[in-house]
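Morning F.,

Quick status update on the modeling queue. The single chain you submitted on Monday has been processed. Sequence for confirmation:
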Amino acid sequence: MTPEIDTTKIDQAVLALLYLTLHDGDRAWKSLDWDAMNRLHGQGLIHDPVGKAKSIVFTPPGKEQAERLFFQLFGK
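Structure tokens below.
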């Protein structure tokens, strides 16, 4: 039996990891799970990840939440 996956926790971890690659103010490299990226876009935390750019752009609330989650999940 396969345990259920909590996509909310996955999305929080992805958002936090995106913050790890933050550059140029609001941009982060988009080399993570596409389903999670689409969910984050649907929640208004990042701008549409589809396109030729190799990075995503955080929305202001997304950047704030990403920073908070990054330190919550990975800070000492």
